[in-house]
Amino acid sequence: MATEHTIDMIRDSKRTMLETEDIGVSLLQDLHQQRGRLIHAHDIFITWMITSERAEGSLGPCLPEGVVAS
Question: Which SUPFAM superfamilies match (predicted)?
Fold first, then answer.
């Protein structure tokens, strides 16, 4: 019957919607964690740069070869 088919389609659509929402939530949580790790790594790098600058007197020795401090 058409009504049963329609109900089944609605149920399938709802299931797909909920699965998609779960995937989206999981993805956003992963991205949030990655952002936190990147911010932490950036903070460590900046701290290292400041410490190295104070120890060396300039940024020159801290920069990769070929990069010139401005």
Answer: SNARE fusion complex (SSF58038)
Tokens (6 digits) for 28: 């956003």
Are 49 and 62 contacting, i.e. CB atoms less than 8 angstroms apart? yes
Of 69, 51, 52, the closest CA to residue 60 belongs to 69
Model pLDDT for residues 8-21, shown as the tens digit of each residue: 999 999 999 999 99
24: exposed, middle or buried (C-beta count within 10 Å: 0-12, 13-18, 19+)?
A: exposed
**pLDDT tens sequence across 31-49:** 999 999 999 999 999 998 8
Amino acid identity, residue 15? Answer: R
DSSP state of 3: H
